[in-house]
Write a structure and sequence with these properties.
92 residues, globular, mainly beta, 6-stranded antiparallel beta sheet
Length: 92
């Protein structure tokens, strides 16, 4: 089991240019809008930022998410980082 309480599902990121991102191992989408997507994955909390972001496909059963738009950054947040972290500044 990982720190999020589930068995480790396959986690993979595939970035095609800066316009298309495919993420596997997605367990939940916590927040999204046109400038940011925050998702819980089997490898931790993943934050994607950019412009005109859209979720093209979401399959929580299969754990896969497709993002279209201009992707500026992809980062992992530590669990328990609190609202003072980057996530808190972005969505606080």
């Amino acid at each position: 089991m990982n720190e999020y309480g589930s068995t480790m599902a396959a986690h993979r990121l595939e970035l095609d240019g800066r316009e298309r991102l495919t993420v596997s191992g997605v367990e939940d989408v916590e927040r999204f809008d046109e400038t940011g997507i925050v998702m819980a994955t089997s490898a931790g909390l993943l934050v994607v930022t950019g412009e005109d972001l859209h979720i093209g496909k979401l399959s929580l059963d299969g754990g896969e998410l497709h993002v279209d738009g201009r992707i500026d950054s992809i980062s992992y947040e530590e669990q328990g980082g609190g609202r003072a972290g980057w996530f808190g500044r972005l969505f606080g």
